[in-house]
Amino acid sequence: MEEARNRAFAMIRPGVKASDVDKAAMDYLKEEGYGEFLLHRTGHGIGQGNHEGPWVAEGSEHILEENMVISVEPGIYDPEFGGVRHSDTVLVTKDGYECLTHYPTDLKSLTILKSKTLKKLKGKIIQKAVGMK
User: Fold this and answer.
1) pLDDT digits (tens, 9 = 90+) for 37-58
2) Which of 97, 69, 81, 91 is nearest to 34 (CA)?
3) Is the confidence at residue 113, as pLDDT, over 80?
4) C-alpha–C-alpha distance, residues 4 and 120, integer Å
5) Cβ distance 120 to 42 under 8 Å?
6) At what angle do helices 2-11 and 18-31 cross, to 10 degrees?
7) Mean pLDDT over all residues of the chain?
8) pLDDT tens digit string along 75-84?
9) How far apart are CA 7 and CA 130, in angstroms?
10) Which domains does the chain have, with CATH numbers?
């Protein structure tokens, strides 16, 4: 997923077809044997609505332009194991892109290993105390 993400980033600049960004990410994931675990496009535009064009997807005719904001979020979903996806918000700049998401992307930071039962219980108690459902 991280390498697919990097391949998508490498394509982002004005004048590039959004479908080519998707192809770079998806081709890599398919080459690595994850073809059957791909459930959605690489990304989409972000504007007044959360999911809108330009569609970073196969068949999209959208051409990236400076100041467009898109998501880059290739994902792998194995029903026997689980899934992984990191959604980045990206600004198309004059010379490439700027990633607006500043969150760790390493596997350790993205992995949920155990339930936080006590934190959940504390949250429920606080919600009840202040009258929240």
Assistant:
1) 999 999 999 998 778 899 999 9
2) 81
3) no
4) 34
5) no
6) 150
7) 88
8) 999 888 888 8
9) 47
10) 2-129 (3.90.230.10)
What would you report as the CA-atom Rg of the chain, rounded to the nearest whole angstrom?
18
Residue found by looking up tokens 């791909």 in the block: 38
Whose CA is closest to 58, among 24, 99, 90? 24
Q: What is the DSSP letter of 42?
A: S
In 29-68, DSSP assigns E strands to 43-45, 52-56
Q: Give the other-Cβ count within 10 Å of 9's Cβ.
A: 17
DSSP 3-state assignment of 32? coil
Dihedrals phi, psi of 48, to nearest 5 degrees:
-75, -25
| Mean pLDDT value of segment 58-68 | 97
